[in-house]
Amino acid sequence: MFRGLRALDGLTVRIPRGATYCLLGPNGSGKTTFIRAIVGLIRLDGGDLHVLGEHVSSVRSLYPRIGYMTQHRALYPDLTVQENMEFFAGLYGIDGQRRKRRIAELLEMVELSDHRDRLAGALSGGMYQRLSLACTLIHEPELLLLDEPTVGVDPALRQSFWMYFDQLASEGKTVIISTHLMDEAEKCRIVGYMRSGRMAAEGSPDEIMQLAGLKPHLELLLEDPERDASLLRSEGYEVEVSGGVVRIRIDKHAQIKEILEIISPLDMRLREPSLEEAFLTLSGVA
Ligand SMILES: Nc1ncnc2c1ncn2[C@@H]1O[C@H](COP(=O)(O)OP(=O)(O)OP(=O)(O)O)[C@@H](O)[C@H]1O
Ligand SMILES: [Mg+2]
């Protein structure tokens, strides 16, 4: 509770070990608060929370097994890339050859090996995110909490981050990650969509799509949209006209052929429903 605001409210979540779990939801829906509650940084006014089999009240003893990357800047701006990594390694008692190997491995992964002598405070936004991720992973945590880790990271590197997250999960590590990007959510085993501190919908991306029951639709560019729309309606199709574009809900792809026997569009494209639309439907927004 933040001055009367229930940032988390009636939230029941079970995250299996070894899963990639994505937290989605609009700004202020409670994603960061949930992550902070897991690491024991927020005192819960009620409810129960267990982390890696332990009650959250003793979560601090689990810190060596947890990696938390905050949404905001948490590194030392006046230390270099290498020094930040060394500092975090030191916190977890990693030294000698192991420290050297681990730092080299991670800097390679986030493509910062050539920038190891730059001050963290002088890195670009995306580079800073990459260094934050590398520092979070230094002690090979088995539970990873990553709050919007790919903000500002370029597409190619984002892809390699996700391959790495999948690899961590396949090694049995649990990766909880918040994002606003649907293509990232689609890569996760379970997606939880939060709204106003609650879990509005949860499931695998396929389950969410099925649950929302959204149908694909065909968008048609027609010479005479109104005339063709009435023709299609008289054949029993659900048709919508807006901005000169005609949209038809279809149940199965075979209907496209039938539609083309009724009308001759100038152009057309098939739009499959997106995960975003599915979530909006399930949470009652659309
Ligand atoms: N320390 C705090 N004091 C007061 N209110 C807070 C505090 N932290 C969070 N809140 C409020 O709790 C709600 C949930 O915030 P939270 O940061 O968890 O959202 P979020 O889903 O992470 O949003 P975003 O996508 O913008 O990161 C918001 O209304 C926010 O203003
Ligand atoms: Mg947040």
Automatic annotation (TrEMBL):
Which PROSITE patterns did the record assign?
A: ABC_TRANSPORTER_2
Q: Which Pfam families match?
A: ABC_tran
All copies of the ABC transporter domain together span 1-221
Kindly list the GO molecular function terms attached to this UniProt entry: ATP binding; ATP hydrolysis activity
Going by the UniProt record, its keywords in alphabetical order are: ATP-binding, Nucleotide-binding
Q: Where are the transmembrane segments?
A: none
* Record InterPro entries: AAA+_ATPase, ABC_transporter-like_ATP-bd, P-loop_NTPase
| Database matches in SMART domains | AAA (SM00382)
Q: What is this protein called?
A: ABC transporter related protein
